Amino acid sequence: MDEERLTSLRKLEERLGYQFKRIEWLDQALTHKSFIYQTNTPRKVSNEVLEFLGDAVINLTVSDILLRRFPEDQEGTLSIKRSHLVKQGFLALLSKKIGLQWYILLGKSELIDGGRKKSSILANTYEALIGAIYMDSGFYQASKIIQNHIEPYLESETFLTLFTDYKSLLQNYVQKNHGVSPKYTVMKESGPDHDKQFQASVMFSGEIKGIGWGRSKKLAEQEAAKNALYEIQKDSNDQNPSLKDPV
């Protein structure tokens, strides 16, 4: 590794708040396969293996964070919440916040094609970075870095709203897996005007999937969506007991 590259990576370490014992891990995490193919550099290795490793570390860490933050949630609901935090777009956002795009080694053709702005490359590079930290210092340190990056977003109103909006979570699942939108119906009203209770149902694929009660129509629909998510998870486990992440 030449002196210019080393100096550049040391600056990135400052941004990360983590100093590598073996800086080569960081260099590998930032080496895209296009650079290897283009330059034919035999001593360099691309970040693909570290990306694979980092993906596993991120999924486990995010699962742990969500389980601690939402201890009453069912597995299916936690899975859907996790999907928002490990999806390509969010990991690409984290990558850009750190400024990883300016340190990635890309082949000329990928550079011309706007590789530094591609969400797929940015997300994969973030995964590789986490994999590199894991190889350098182990799971605890890698997990700590992930938590530091994610926590500010978990405190934001946007994410807090998303994580308690079961209708949105169900909508995402149904559209992805069935190609339709769930339909809500208010089935019943009871009680005096000052203390009304509403019963709502949610239907898709020709069946009622969840029923909920609430002090308003919106709350009843949220409860119905939450119960539908629970039933989705339960049905998936009944059909395949070994299935860990159906949604």
What does this structure look like?
The structure is a single chain. The protein has helices spanning 3-16, 23-29, 33-39, 48-69, 75-86, 88-98, 108-112, 119-137, 139-154, 157-164, 166-178, 217-239; strands at residues 183-190, 197-204, 207-214. The protein is mainly alpha-helical and 247 residues long. It has a three-stranded antiparallel beta sheet, with helices on one face. Strand 2 (197-204) and strand 3 (207-214) form a beta hairpin. Helix 4 (48-69) crosses helix 8 and helix 8 crosses helix 9 (139-154).
Features of this protein?
247 residues, mainly alpha, 3-stranded antiparallel β-sheet, 12 helices, 3 strands, 10% strand
What is this entry, summarized?
The chain is mostly helical and 247 residues long. It has twelve helices and three strands.
Side-by-side strand order of the widest sheet: 1-2-3
The secondary structure category is: mainly alpha
> How widely separated are the two ends?
43 Å
> How many β-strand runs?
3
pLDDT < 50 stretches: 238-247
- The general outline is elongated
Residue share in β-strands: 5-15%
Helix percentage: 55-70%
Radius of gyration: 22 Å
How many separate helices?
Answer: 12
The profile of the biggest β sheet is: 3 strands, antiparallel
One letter per element, helices H and strands E, the order comes to: HHHHHHHHHHHEEEH
Q: Roughly what is the average pLDDT, rounded to an integer?
A: 87
